[in-house]
Amino acid sequence: MARIFYFSGTGNSLAIAKRLAEGLEARLCSIPAYLEHPYAVPDAVVGFVSPVHCTELPPLVERFLQTVRFGPGTEYLFGVVDAGSVTGDALGEAGNIIAKRRLPRLEMCAGFRILLPDGSILFTTPGKRRQQMLDALDGQLADIVSTVQRRGLNDRHRERNPVWMLGKKLGWPVLDGFFHVKERHVDASRCVGCGTCAQVCPVHCISLENRLPVFGDGCASCFGCAQWCPKQAISLGRLRPSADKQYHNPLVTASEMEEAGRQG
Predict the structure, then answer these.
(1) 80-136 per-position pLDDT tens digit
(2) Of 33, 25, 24, which is closest to residue 5 (Cα–Cα)?
(3) Residue 9 falls within a domain, yes or no?
(4) Which end of the chain lies in a sparser environment, N or C, as judged by fewer CB atoms within 10 Å?
(5) DSSP character for 157?
(6) pTM (2 d.p.)
(7) Strand, helix or coil at 228?
(8) How far apart are CA 159 and CA 81, in angstroms?
(9) How many structural domains compose the chain?
């Protein structure tokens, strides 16, 4: 048996994870849901899919890799990271976390990188390039499925680039310090109370009061609420996507984001 864990805000990582789960006949599991109710993973093949945030893994995914409990039958571990332009040090970081745990009989076997339209708001992928990336996805996923099915090995998770390791020390300080992305606001004149933001939030920290979103603690800075909002009513500090620049993955729906997010 196989199991695919994922974390997703704009839907890119869920789109990847869904198709990998289909190709490998694997169970699809949300990383936030697993962290709420952890268990020993019983499967022989385990994969994780994560976006890259500021050239690194999101803290929530780091915590998952540091704490996930593998059962005695797990023998093959792989990771997939996705980004709009560069995947930075994310795979190397994942491999390092697993190596430091010194797990008996288990190490990270393979890593894969996929480029999909950028969900950061700050670096918008042009429309033509978006479609090219989406069109290329099926072929890349077929290659990954083939590699995993034959228990293929590669060294991408062992590559550490000092440039990216420096870059990740600058990315979040800029987003937090200059753009103030953790200061979430809603424009009441735009909001229609549809609840999409709460529906897609992977960590369930958005609720509705009087038909307006209320932002709670625990935000994972995935930008999903702003990117999925049909009225562009949500701003993250100085960032708010306009209708022509807004992006969420067209291969998944808000309902799928909500439903898959419950599966730990």
Answers:
(1) 999 998 888 899 999 999 999 999 889 999 999 999 999 888 888 998 999 999 999
(2) 33
(3) yes
(4) N
(5) G
(6) 0.94
(7) helix
(8) 14
(9) 1
